[in-house]
Amino acid sequence: MTTEIHKYQRKELQLKSLLEITQAINENQSEAILLNIFKFTCLVHLNIKALILYVAKEGAFENKISHGVKGNVPMLIAASQVVDEKSTGELRLELEEEYSFEELETYLPVYHKDKMLAILFLRRKDQSLELDLNFTQALTNILVVALENKRFARKQLEQEILNREVAIASQVQQMLFPAELPTDKELKAKVTYLPHSMVGGDYYDLIRKSKDEVYFCIADVSGKGISAALLMSNFQAALRTLLRSDANLEMVVKQLNYTLFENTNGERFITFFLGHFNFKTRELTYVNAGHNPPLLCREETGKCENLHAGTTILGAFDELPFLEIGKREHLKDFALHLYTDGLTEAMNPAEEEFGEERLEKFVDKNMDLDPDDFHRKFLKKIKQFSKDVPLRDDLTLLSLRFQ
């Protein structure tokens, strides 16, 4: 009769334990509360005196509960250190000598399919009483699955937040680009922009300051993603503020470098090309700050040249070590092609880069084309070359034709 009463009492305690933890899960209690309820249940309602619970986390097992253990046990066990011999039913931990689990008499692994999600080590209070391992394992399984679901939900929420942030950053980046490019008799412009991801690191701009003056630029920020978009947004704001003033190209570039270095402590940099053309004097001035040299093509000579003059990348030094302002005079009927390294670094299936030589040959062959036709032909060319190999970086090509 006493044995029957004991069994009845044990079943009643197990049912109470099960109700407590499932109620907490249904109420969406925090991970800490769920762990405390499980720990309390094991120590009060079950015949358990000491326990350690390890839960799987990114290639390791993390110590989530440790109670009644005097010895030194690790807070983290690498998954490679846990060997579960299913054939013999033994668990082997390949740990350093300083760690020991000898005072804990048994262990219970928790699996989902073939993946071990947790390990519960324990010791009984009363050695004369049996421990219902099946129920303890089932209870542990309920807890671990709840923790796994919480982790998954948290990751899903974090991903949703990240997706929203990326979408916002992408919208911000799109706002940086000119809404329209000129297509009048004096100046025709066309851009091809192929971002590697939703948020890229390329930037181009064209600012008509007056009837006689136009500024144009292209830039590539180190890094990608939201931080790159925000950095480029600040860069554009600084650039446009400087261009509205009477600052010359030298002052503009020096101030941009100073602002960038101050904001990033030299940890981020931007390659940048800034050009200025005066329709009245027919003079082009420019600064190339470590960027791919644009191609200047003159119809009268039928030749193209690279525009190298300038300085080093912006943001690497608190003061630019050198600075040269490039100048070309008496320009008539000419074109400029500005691009980022995503173009020349586009790969084909043989892992060959498109390269500057192919680009220069293409430009030489098609320098007389209208910008729209030039870009249509270029897109066909780059697709034929890459044969659907994904871009490794953002690709931007900005073409300007001056009459």
TrEMBL record:
Give the coiled coil ranges: none
Question: Looking at the keywords, is Hydrolase present?
Answer: yes
| Domain spans labelled PPM-type phosphatase | 184-402
Q: Which UniProt keywords apply?
A: Hydrolase
Among InterPro entries, the record links this protein to: Bact_Sigma-Reg (IPR052016), PPM-type-like_dom_sf (IPR036457), PPM-type_phosphatase-like_dom (IPR001932)
**Taxonomic superkingdom:** Bacteria
One annotated GO molecular function: phosphatase activity
Q: Does the keyword Hydrolase apply?
A: yes
Query: What is the official name of this protein in its record?
Result: Sigma-B regulation protein RsbU (Phosphoserine phosphatase)
In which organism is this protein found?
Answer: Algoriphagus chordae
Lineage start:
Bacteria, Pseudomonadati, Bacteroidota, Cytophagia, Cytophagales
